[in-house]
Input
Amino acid sequence: MSISLRYAPPKGAIGAEFSGKKLNPKESVLEHYKKYIAEQFETTWEELQAGCSYANAGPDMLLVYDETDRYIDHREGDRIQARCPGARLVKTSAYNHQKILVAPELAQAVGKFLEAKR
Output
């Protein structure tokens, strides 16, 4: 079994658009970023925008969001979970975008998730 932490792009408001609004990169940089993100999911940018990257993942998906994250809206976790019945959603509320990976709740959630997969 392998674990990967990936940014799950939300439908319609993909990270590249958000990054473009915040950072104002050149169009060529934004296009390169979109291509890179799509390659990570082994799909096309258009399919990512349609929400296909996580469709039907269900019980094989663990979603972790922090309610104080200024960059990624935690409600995206609710939307993804609704599209993937059986997916597990964990929300924290004190770690924001930078500290979520060191949250004790994350370690506990991953441990429980992996234990259930045995």
In short: The mean pLDDT is 78. Residues 11 and 51 are 5 Å apart (CA to CA). The chain has two domains: 10-53, 56-118. Helices lie at 15-23, 27-40, 45-49, 75-83, 96-99, 104-116.
